[in-house]
Amino acid sequence: MVEPSQPLRRHVRWLWLSVMSFTTLMLLIAYQTRWVYPEIHAYFSQAGNLTGQQLATRARVYLQQGLDLLLSLPRDSDTRERAHFQIKLAYSLFDIGLYRRDYPCTEPSLAAMDDLLTRLQGSDALETDHLRENLLKPMHCLTQIEMHQLDRRSAVTAEFVEQTRRHQGQVLFGSLVIFVSGLGFWLMHELQRRRAARSARESLEWMAKALCDPLTGVGNRSAMHDDVTAAGGAPMGLLLVDIDYFKQYNDSLGHPDGDRLLRRLVQLIEDNLEREARLYRLGGDEFAVLFVCHDDEILSATCRNLVESLRAANLPHPSHPHSDHVTFSVGAVRFNASHAELEAGYAAADTALYQVKARGRDGWAVAALDTSEMSG
């Protein structure tokens, strides 16, 4: 019998080694896909689920609707009945064991809502201050719950990413062991590595786009919250910037011109800010500016420079009822970077902004968290 030649035996061995290596690698990839994909799908797929964060959000919306009804005039029986229905809906979503167990503000908030529901069913007169006291505390509590749920979700996500990273390290180690078995496995491993790197790069690019406003290119509300978290308690200045009569501008010149104006104003704001300042678009014609700020003088100077720079730009506004050019209204506040103080600071700056609007717009106001103010 003719013995097979040495080169043929060598080729057969390499072919066998390559097939075995390829099969082993495919098994590893299949295992990784079977382990990782169900975990991703189970955690990130929210179809048909009602999370704690969604319950708190819906309850807060119903509370806001009930408060709006009670603050409207006249407060007749029909209005009270509709408000009672909205608050009852909020109560039912709020009154769950998880909230009672994990959030101390739940019990007093439910008690306040229950008291108000009793009053609504009776004929007692409802004073505005009493309404706000009974509903603003539950709304604040629900906001705290929402923020805490978001933090918990972020922590679980970070833990899942770390577990995935460890698992991928194990797969890489196995791939390196298989690498010595043949050139065929090395080629397959390299192709897999490049696909994984491309997928990670695309994921990072997608995440960066998710934190960016597509029209203006600046950050969005999520980016602002992330930057506040990253600041870790540093003293920050927050500016809320609103374009006066922007709707009228759009109505007279059209939305394309309105979009061009937004981009022009973003450039103008960025040109007048310090290098470390960050600009965000919160929606529509409302922007926010976040920067390190140690005293109110710096905050006031920044507001003044923004308003005066826009006046100097003299951008035409054909539908402005009080001016022939585009103007800003700016509300500002200082706070220490944290979720809780951002919430309070945002509310204070928003109040200052509406004070500017009440005075006729085209100006600025600086509010402190202790409610003292400076303005110009």
TrEMBL record:
UniProt cross-references to Pfam families, sorted A to Z: GGDEF
Key words, A-Z: Membrane, Transmembrane, Transmembrane helix
Matches recorded under CDD domains: GGDEF (cd01949)
Keyword Transmembrane in annotation: yes
Spans traversing the lipid bilayer: 12-31, 171-188
InterPro entries for this protein: Diguanylate_Cyclase (IPR050469), GGDEF_dom (IPR000160), Nucleotide_cyclase (IPR029787), Rev_trsase/Diguanyl_cyclase (IPR043128)
Catalytic activity: 2 GTP = 3',3'-c-di-GMP + 2 diphosphate
EC number: 2.7.7.65
Database matches in SUPFAM superfamilies: Nucleotide cyclase
GGDEF domain: residues covered: 234-369
Name under which the protein is recorded: diguanylate cyclase
Native organism: Billgrantia zhangzhouensis
